[in-house]
Design goal:
By secondary structure, the chain is an alpha/beta fold. The chain has a single domain, classed as Ribokinase (UDP-N-acetylmuramoyl-L-alanine:D-glutamate ligase, 3-Layer(aba) Sandwich). The protein is built from 13 helices and 14 strands. The strands form two sheets. A nine-stranded mixed beta sheet has the order 6-5-1-9-10-11-12-13-14, with helices on both faces. Strands 2, 3, 4, 7 and 8 form a five-stranded mixed beta sheet that branches. α9 packs across α10 and α12 crosses α13 (359-369). The protein is globular, with a radius of gyration of 20 Å.
Length: 372
């Protein structure tokens, strides 16, 4: 991981302190069932060879066409999931005060969210979705049941939060993160209500910002994606707006907006971020493949390598940790370049340990991974 002296100088001169800073995050919630597909079994329990890559699984499935197949999914563990809860948990670990609004169980909180709900003084809107996550060395496949998320709309938010308390919650937040647009069918209408009815009623706040993550919109139509991007652009009139995209999402947004996509090289990533930001007229766009990240603001474009590992303990939630790291670093006043490096290290610590890092652990990994 090659990091410029400018980043090292900045982190040495400025503390990564989140004291007194707060966030509101929503709106999804999933119970994640992490599993490993079995290739060859040699006995009971974990005595088996795993299907190691998505390509290998694809070959197994293709070979079953016109026949049948029995695919064993070995359960690893069950945990809290969803882009919102994972991002919120990462923000908690980084020291932010977090309020969560989402699908954590209704009327009772699901057991995997009980501790999280207490820490975030959460408001639950619906039953959580269920995700079966198949993890491989080269990526992951997420099999989701999202029926319960259809209940989430603006009226449900106001009913569960109470309008006055919801406005107060939004008014007190330094950063509001709205994620997993793809899985929440009524999210676009919720965003319209926020920008039309809530934001004009908030008192001015110098540090207020919004972070958006579409979350793998491949199954959504071009028209739907274009509509939500137009709505996200409208938030910029009330606060700084940032759109976070992984590489595939960036390609799809470029296609939707009539822009040229590109490869994963530094120049190409920076150009995509720059062109998307200009088209949407928002404060910041971030594009992050697995091993690097780029962002663009009105002041320019930046790129940083990440501390990539070929042997991750977990990959589900890596992008959410990146988003948490970037949002938090920017909130703490770090430059876009340093924020990218901190974001990659927030994600990097998580995939190595399966634990969300503290700010100190982010800085430590950044220093360990650096080659000057």
């Amino acid at each position: 991981m090659r990091i410029s002296q400018k980043i090292i100088s900045e982190i040495n001169q400025k503390p990564f302190s989140t004291a007194g800073k707060s966030s509101v995050v929503g709106l999804d919630g999933f119970v994640d069932k992490i599993v490993t597909p079995v290739d060859k079994r040699h006995g009971q329990a974990e005595n088996f060879d795993a299907i190691e890559t998505i390509a290998d699984l694809g070959e197994r499935i293709s070979a079953a066409a016109g026949k049948s197949a029995n695919l064993e999914l070995f359960p690893r563990f069950e945990k809290l999931g969803g882009n919102g809860p994972i991002m919120a948990n990462a923000m908690l670990s980084l020291g932010l005060s977090v309020r969560y609004i989402g699908a954590l169980g209704h009327p009772a909180i699901h057991s995997v969210f009980e501790e999280f709900a207490q820490k975030t003084n959460a408001v639950s809107l619906a039953e959580p979705g269920i995700t079966t996550a198949l993890e491989f060395k080269d990526g992951k496949l997420m099999l989701g049941n999202t029926r319960s998320l259809e209940e989430i709309d603006f009226s449900r938010i106001i009913e569960c939060c109470e309008e006055g308390k919801f406005i107060e919650m939004m008014a007190n937040a330094d950063v509001v993160a709205v994620v997993n647009w793809t899985m929440i069918p009524k999210m676009t209408s919720i965003l319209v209500e926020l920008v039309d009815r809530i934001l004009p009623n908030l008192p001015p706040r110098d540090t207020r910002s919004f972070f958006f993550d579409l979350t793998d919109p491949a199954k959504r139509s071009t028209e739907d994606i274009f509509e939500v991007l137009e709505v996200i652009s409208r938030f910029q009139a009330h606060a700084e707006a940032t759109l976070g995209l992984n590489y595939n999402e960036a390609l799809q947004v470029c296609e939707t907006l009539g822009l040229n996509g590109g490869d994963k090289s530094e120049d190409s990533l920076k150009k995509m971020a720059k062109e998307i930001r200009r088209k949407l007229e928002i404060s910041c766009v971030v594009v992050h493949p697995v091993d690097s990240a780029a962002c663009a603001t009105k002041d320019g474009e930046w790129w940083s390598e990440g501390p990539y590992t070929e042997d991750p303990k977990i990959t589900t939630g890596a992008g959410d940790h990146f988003n948490a790291g970037f949002s938090t670093a920017r909130l703490c006043g770090f430059s876009p370049l340093t924020s990218l490096a901190m974001a990659t290290c927030t994600s990097g610590h998580y995939v190595r340990t399966a634990q969300s890092p503290s700010t100190g652990q982010v800085i430590e990994l950044l220093k360990q991974a650096t080659i000057l």
